[in-house]
Amino acid sequence: MTVTKQPSDDRLDEPQMVLAWRAEALARAGYPAEEAFLLAERDDVDLHQAIYLLESGCPVGTAVRILT
Asked: The pTM is what?
């Protein structure tokens, strides 16, 4: 008999994991938590472009307006 382990209820599903990873990457790049989450949850925001904007000296507010 083979028993497969079911994930516990406290684990994140894959979309939630991706969202958390994107928000963390944006926060590490310099976006405040609220803006990082806002951008992370949008499928139309290119993560690399969002990070590049800040690395290029673009202010956070301007970057958010460009991306959204």
From this structure: 0.78
Domain containing 53 equals: 14-67
Q: Is the CA virtual torsion 64, 50, 21, 15 positive or negative?
A: positive
Give dist(CA 66, CA 53) in Å, integer.
9
Phi first, then psi, for residue 5 (nearest 5°) are -80, 125
| 47-62 pLDDT tens trace | 999 999 999 999 999 9
The domain total for the chain is 1
**What's the residue count for the chain?**
68
Owner of token pair 């991706």: 18
